[in-house]
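Aim 2 progress update. The chain analyzed this quarter is reproduced below.
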Amino acid sequence: MSLLDWFANRRKAEPTNQAQPERDISDGLWTKCDACGVMTYTKDLRANQMVCLECGHHMRVFSEERIEQLMDADTWIPLNEQVSPIDPLEFRDRKAYSDRIRDTQAKTGLTDSIQTGIGQIDGEPAAVAVMDFRFMGGSMGSVVGEKLTRLIEKATAERLPVLVFCASGGARMQEGMLSLMQMAKISGALERHRDAKLLYIPVLTHPTTGGVTASFAMLGDLIVAEPKAMIAFAGRRVIEQTLREKLPDDFQTAEYLVQHGFVDLIVPRTQMKATLAQLIRLHQLPSAKVSASTGAASLNGAGATRDTASSSAS
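Predicted structure tokens:
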């Protein structure tokens, strides 16, 4: 072998690209977009309400962030925070349901998968509920049904519009039939709210599925959704096996449902507050105009008469 051949073989054996040392990036300083993979400075991303500056992908936000994004400063008054889940069926899978509740409460700082309250959206009073997917997949149990029903009944008495931000995997299996009962209870409260000629707007975020979709998520006077949110009742595979046909790739997306009349409007998160405030102004009755001082005074004693969700089961 010639000297030239020896050098040529050695050059082939050597790696062409030297491994670059990974940059030391502090935890939480940068966020990677799940859709396009672009790294964005987290502070800038939060300023844009967790919407990717590169591709517009809506990253998941939780109840505290949603309330902060939506409500005017110092106007949010939470309701029924003391309502807490119990274990009426003494359910157990790999872990006891009571233990699962305690662990999730400690991890999230929430009592259950929904927060409710009254505040102002760009100066417009409204009753608002925000579901939180961190808490057992945003599942709908007795507490969700109880807190939503109380909020809607209060909104009916105060003649306020109701806005519900949905993010749920459906009914909570650990509460069995008691969970399914909440669908009818919430729907009944919404019907009384509708009879009073008041506005109800559900906002469907990613994901909204199961019993939530089958009840209050689809009962709005106007149904709003975030871009590319998954909205469904049953899963794609179950439907395809039932119908025995292939479904479109964008099936169960907000865009598909708008085209087929199930959703009225898709609103980007950065425009959500202004859009909802405008819809409230367009639909409210003159009697619904409530001053901030009157609205705050009417909330005295708002922490209802029952301290647990056990009464909702009865």
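Residues 24-59 form one domain. The chain has a mean pLDDT of 87. These observations will guide the mutagenesis experiments scheduled for the next reporting period.
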